[in-house]
């Protein structure tokens, strides 16, 4: 982090801690509510026209030559050929690979882009009428889970883990349907899964052993499509596209 980055971060913290009058707080909060409402309304209207898809989560930092970028593109291509639309976070890395694969497979390619000070910019493989922009992470996450028929989780960072555990929590608490959660890359996810089993389940008993049934770990694009198809055959459903 450069000196300017530290300086900007310091000024942001000072601004947050600065004393504001009650009228300033109330006014700022009121305008924020309207902005949040507008993002929800625009998101609902746009996504309702698109219909449910399969969400692909993963790192924005993954380079095109990386094996997981290549695999994500193959997965999205196979998903689109199987009749599923694809939703990503709209940015670079794994998100770009997901949209690229869907675009190459002539399937629906949706991008839910977020305004960030670094990393994020929308990729060129999103359908032009399906590129949505958000300022608020929580609004964007609602769009992911409300309009997803399945979640494919590639290797990623904190944002990817946030999206993964959000989906698991909502399914576990029956706030959304029991859609498949597919983790791609057994070597990447092995440590996390082992910690959940040994510490959370066996040692501390903060998670039910049956919650692990919500997750499937795979390594290939064919396994992803097979997991999705098996789920929909089980419930006598079919893709929306």
Sum up the structure in keywords.
Rossmann fold; 8 helices; 13% strand; alpha/beta; seven-stranded parallel beta sheet; globular; 241 residues; hydrolase; 7 strands
Write up what this structure looks like.
With 241 residues, the chain is α/β, with parallel strands linked by helices. It has one domain (18-234): 3-Layer(aba) Sandwich (Rossmann fold). It is built from eight helices and seven strands; from the N terminus they run ααβαβαββαβαβαβα. It has a seven-stranded parallel beta sheet with strand order 4-3-2-1-5-6-7, with helices on both faces. Helix 3 (67-81) packs parallel to helix 8. 36% of the residues are buried.
Sequence-ordered SSE layout with sheet pairings:
Blueprint: H1 3-17, H2 22-50, E1 53-57, H3 67-81, E2 86-88, H4 94-104, E3 109-114, E4 131-134, H5 137-146, E5 148-153, H6 158-172, E6 181-184, H7 186-203, E7 215-218, H8 221-234
Parallel strand pairs: 1-2, 1-5, 2-3, 3-4, 5-6, 6-7
